[in-house]
Every structure is written in structure tokens, then in C-alpha cells.
Write a structure and sequence with these properties.
Layout lengths: L7 H15 L3 H17 L11 H5 L2 E2 L2 E2 L2 H5 L9 H12 L11 E3 L8 E2 L2 E7 L2 E4 L12
Helix pairs in contact: 1-2, 1-5, 2-5
InterPro entries: Cell_wall_hydrolase_SleB, SleB_dom1
Protein name: Cell wall hydrolase
Keywords: Hydrolase
Length: 145
């Protein structure tokens, strides 16, 4: 059983986002970004109570801006999904999770050392250019299921 319900259009959309956000971090980096996307769809807490589909996660607006920088700036996100990224996205949707993004709901590239918290949420680890953050204990149990 997949981690979240999805259609082929979700696989392509997620693949585009993974590539746009983490192509420079390689396939493993793209998988970590995919973890965050699926975790947000699974989370029933914090800023993610009303997002359940991959499309809702990717096009979520917070504070007047899209949550993912790639949607705002265009870059690679608006290119067609490639088969390699589609395979990675489907792997995330079906089963794949790994530290430091296993339970992460946020990531960013600080262009500096990773801060110990991000908007009050604890640092879970870093992979190449991205810092990952998971919810503070007890604030989002659904992401740990």
C-alpha cells in the first residue's frame, strides 16, 4: 500500500518538484525532498492540516507565497518530468523514507551552516546543500506514522 494515494499526474508533478528543488544534490537529495512532500501530505498538523494531495502540497500558499521556491521562480519546475525523476517520485510515494528527511516537514538551503531550529522546529540533519527539520516532539504525531 502506498504512503499516500496518488495518480500518474501526481508522480509527474512531484518528479518536477524534486528535480527543481534538489537536482544539484543528486538522486538521494531528490529523494529527501520527495520525503518532505509525502510527509506534508500525510501530516495532519501545523501548517499541513488542509493538504492531503500531492498537488495541494506543491501548490500550497503560505504568507502570500507558494511554499516551494521552485513554484514561485519557475526554474526547472516548469520543465517536463524525466523518467529518472518519475521513478524516484514513485519510490517516495510507495515506500521510501530515510534520515535526515524521514520525518521532516521542512527543508531549505541556507548557503551557510544549518541553524539548530527552523521556525522553532528542530534540525534533523543535512544532506549536501539542504538542511532538514522535523516537527517538535508531540506537535505532529501523524508524520511519525
Amino acid at each position: 500500500m502506498p504512503r499516500v494515494n496518488y495518480r500518474s499526474s501526481d508522480v509527474a508533478l512531484m518528479a518536477r518538484m524534486m528535480r527543481a528543488e534538489a537536482e544539484g544534490d543528486g538522486q538521494l537529495g531528490m529523494l529527501f525532498v520527495g520525503n518532505v512532500i509525502v510527509n506534508r501530505a500525510k501530516a495532519d498538523c501545523l501548517d499541513f492540516k488542509d493538504v492531503r494531495t500531492i498537488s495541494e502540497v506543491i501548490f500550497q500558499v503560505q504568507g502570500g507565497n507558494y511554499s516551494f521556491e521552485a513554484v514561485q521562480k519557475g526554474n526547472l519546475f516548469y520543465n517536463r518530468a524525466r523518467s529518472t525523476e518519475k521513478r524516484l517520485a514513485e519510490k517516495n510515494l510507495k515506500y521510501w523514507r530515510q534520515h535526515p528527511a524521514k520525518y521532516a516537514l521542512w527543508y531549505f538551503n541556507p548557503y551557510a551552516p544549518c541553524p539548530p531550529t527552523w521556525w522553532g522546529q528542530p534540525f534533523s540533519g543535512q544532506f549536501k546543500n539542504h538542511c532538514y527539520y522535523e516537527p517538535e516532539a508531540g506537535t505532529c504525531d501523524s508524520v511519525y506514522m
